[in-house]
Predict the 3D structure of the following.
Amino acid sequence: FSLLFGRMKAPAPVPSHTGVFYDPVRSPSRRRFFIRLDIFMTAKTERYQEVITTLEALIGNGEGKYEVDDIGKMALISWALKHHFPEFVFVGFYIVSKPDILTIGPYQGDVMACGTIPFGKGVCGVAAEKGETLVVDDVERFPGYIACDSETRSEIVVPVIKNGEVTAILDVDCGEVGAFYESDSGHLRSIVKDFLE
C-alpha cells in the first residue's frame, strides 16, 4: 500500500462537534461514542437542574412563593419541562377523573393530546394501572399503543402517587426513537415527588 501511495500521514486529531478532541486513527469509535454520550447526559442533567431551580422559585415551599393547587403545579411543571427541553413534543399530565379513567390535564406541546385514556390501555394507562414509571424507546413497538399524534416516537410516563393511589401521570413524548434513559426517569420521578406528592 505504501509503495503505491508513498508514506501516508495519519490524520491529525480533530475536534468533534462536542468540542472533544479525538484521534481518528488511534481512538476507537466506541470511545468517541461514550465521550459524546457522557457530554450529552451531563448537558441533559444540567437542564433538569434548571427545571428544578425554576420550579423551586415558583412553587417551592417558603415565603414569596406562589400558592397554587396541584393543577397549577402541573401547569408550571409542564411549562418548565417544555421550555427547557424544546425537543419534547408533548409534556403534560393526565388526571384520574373517575375510577380507572385518565383525563387530560395541564400540558404543553406541539401536538394534540388524547382526551381520555382507560387504565391498562396505551403507555399512560399501563403506567397508571401498574403504578410505575414506564420508558418506551419506540412507541410503535408497544403493544396496544394509543396514537394521539403522528410525531411521538418515544415516551416516558411517571405516575403521581398520593396515599398509595395513582392520582395522575406525567407523560413526556419525544419525536426521536430512544430519547429517554434511566437518568430521565430519575429526574422526572424526583420532580413529581418533590412538587406533587
The longest helix spans residues 29-59. The helical segments are 2-5, 29-59, 70-84, 122-130, 182-196. The CA atoms of residues 15 and 21 lie 4 Å apart.
